[in-house]
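Re: the 573-residue chain
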Amino acid sequence: MSIRSATIMTFVLMASICISCIQTSAEDPELVIDGDVTWGSEEVIDGTIRIADGGTLNLLEADVSVSTGSMIVVENGGSLILDDSNLASTSPPSGITSFGYWDEERRGAFKVPSDGIDGDFSLTIHSVGGASYYGGQAYVGDSEPVSLNGTEHTFDFSDLEGGEAWIGLVGYGYSSVSISSVTIDTGNSQISIDGIDLDSVNMMAAGDHGFQIVVAGNMEVDNSVISGGGITIEGEGSLDSDSGTFDRVGPIVISSDSSSIDIYGESVFADSLDDHDIRGTSFCGISWGDSVLGSGDFERSGGLTDRWERRVVDQRLVFDSVDVIFEVDGMGLDGVTSFQSSSDSEGIGIVDGGGERVVQIRWSDGSWWNESATINIVSYRTGWNPEASGIDNYGGSDIPLTWGQEQVIDQFTPDIEWVSIAVLGEGEASTSQSVAVLAEFANRGTSAASFYITCDIFETGAQADIGGFQGVVVGPGESMDLQFGWRGGEVGTFSLDCEILTPTQLVDDSAFGGGTMMTESVIWNEPVEEEGLDILPILVALTIGIGIAVVWAYRRAKESVDESFEDDELDEY
C-alpha cells in the first residue's frame, strides 16, 4: 500500500470514529454539572442533566422548557435550586380521568363547552392513550345513562339556548373513565379542546409526564413553578418547597425511608395524576404546612385527591421455622380484608402476595386513616411443641402488623440454655458400674419446650451410654433438673459432651437456644474380683443338713404306718 493510500485510509477511519461519537451523543446527550452553575434566562433542556456530587444548578429567575423524555438527575451530594423560576414540560399531561366512583355525588363529570355555539352540534370524547370505554356509561343531565364503547363516543345536542349541560361518566367495574380531548362539530367548523381545559368535577389530570426529575441529593423550590414533570426522591434525597407550585407533577414519589419532603409556605399542588399528591414509603419524612394547598382543595378534584399516601410493598414476615401457617386480618380501608399463607424453606412468609398496599392516608381535609391489621398464627409446630405435648402454637396471636417491609415474629417462643451439668460422686468408678449425672436447664423464652439431650465421650467422640435420649419439659421462665446415669465402657479418664437436640424445622439451629456443655472427667477402672469362700464348711453343713432331713423323714413315715394298720396286718407287713 502506498503512503498516500495509507493516509487516506487513516482519515476515513478517524472520520468514522468521529461520526460514531456524534451519533452516540445525539442519541443520549448528557450534561454533567460538578461545580456551581447558574441559569438566569430562557433555557432549553433536551436530554439528561446530571448534577454530580459537589455540583449545584441554580435556576434564578429562569424560564426553562424541558423537551419530552428529558431527565434531571440530582446525585447524592448534588443540588438543584429553583428561585423565582419556571420549569415546564413542552408536552405536559393534557387529559383528565375520573376516580372510578358510581354514585352521583362523586362520579366524574365535565361541563359541555357550548358557550358561543348557536344551533345543533355534536361533541365527541376521545380516551387517553386509546383506552376502551367498553362497559362504561355516560349521564347527560338527568337523562337515562348511555352505554359507551370503543375509544371515542359522540353526543348530539340541540340548541342549549344559553343553558349548560354536564356529562357524568362511570366506568366498568368501578374503573376510571378518561378524556384526552373533546371535539365539537357545529356542521360548519370543528373545535378540539384538551380534557385538562374543560370545566370538570371529581376528575384528575391524566397522561404521561413530559420529563422526570430524580433526586438523591437536595432540591429546593422557592417561589417557583414546575409544570408537567414527574419527581422521584430516592436514597437520602430531600425536597424543600417554600411557596412552590407543582402543576400536573403529583404524585411526587418518595421511594426510600431515608428520603424526605418538606412542603410549606404558600406551596400548591394542582391536578395530580393520581388520587394523592405525595406517595411515600412507610417511614419516609413528610411535612405538610398549614398554608399548603393540595389538589383536593380545588373544584376539579372535588376533595377526592388526598394529601399523601404511605405504601408498603413486598412485605415479609420472618419466622424461625418453616411451614408456619399464619393469617393477616384487618387490612384495607374497611378493615375486613384477610388472607392466609405459610413460611417457606427460609422461614419467610409473604404478606398479601407481596403486592403494594396503602397503610396510611392523609385526606384532603387533614384527617387521617391508618391501617391496623393483625397477625394470627394458625399452626406453628416444631419438634419442641408437637400437638401431643400439650404446648400451644408458638408465635402467639393478635400480633400487630407493622408497616415495615420486614417483621420478625419471635414472640411466644422458647429460649433454652444450659445452666450446669455435673457428675455426682467421687469422680471415680468401675466400668461395670454407672455414675449419676445432674443437668440443669433454663428457659429464658415465653413458651414451654419439650426437648431431649444426647451425650458423646468427649475424648473419643463415641456415643455415651446414658440410657438413650433423655427428655425434659421446661416452662417459660423456669429452670429444670434432669438426672440420668452414665455407664462406663472402657478404662480411662473421660468426660461427657452433651448436646440439646433442636427441632429440624428451624431455619437456624440456634433460634430456640440449645448448645452443648461438658462434664468434669471421671476415672474409670477395671472391676475388682472378690476373694473365694472356703468350701469345706459349706460341705460339712450341707451333709449335716441332709442327714437331719433323712432321719426326720424316716420317723415321720413310720408314725404314719403305725396309725393306719391293724396289729395282724402290721405283723404281716
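Residues 3-85+216-307 form one domain.
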